Amino acid sequence: MTLRAAERVQSEGVNLAAVHATALVIGETGLLMHGPSGAGKSSLALALINLAHARGQFARLIGDDRILLSVVHGRLVARPHARIAGQMEQRGRGIIAMDHEPAACIRARIDLVHPEPGRDIPPRLPSGADSFVTIGSMVLPRLMIPAGVSLETSARHVLAFLSGI
Q1: Which listed residue, 2, 78, 139, 157, has the most CB atoms within 10 A of its CB?
Q2: What long-range pairs does 51-55 form, CB within 8 A, spacing at least 24?
């Protein structure tokens, strides 16, 4: 995903990119979760927030479905889309209200991916291309999670990944 491929919008006089993603913050670490519709971004975000809270960590949604990205002072900043701020789609329940943060600096990207024949997801021995992603001018650590894996397992894997960045 690059900012050039994203839809351009105008907000408060600053050009931002609107991307199809979910963003949250755990502790002081902002995460951008990317994947196709139905991959489980919202469900994993909710599982991560609940697991972080159970461990005594701060965790909160930034936004679900449409995230506004900008580079500010050398940092990638995510904000919720104004029309859906504080809302999350929860499969089987519909749209639910969630506490949310107005913005956070994104420090990593989580990609929910559908496995392809003959390709290990996540890779057993990740290459540089698998371990990092470029968004605009920013290079971020990247973790690939197979879509459809248990939420608890995926959430634990993400929290372990965060402890290493």
Answers
A1: 78
A2: 51/152, 51/155, 51/156, 51/159, 52/26, 52/27, 52/159, 55/159
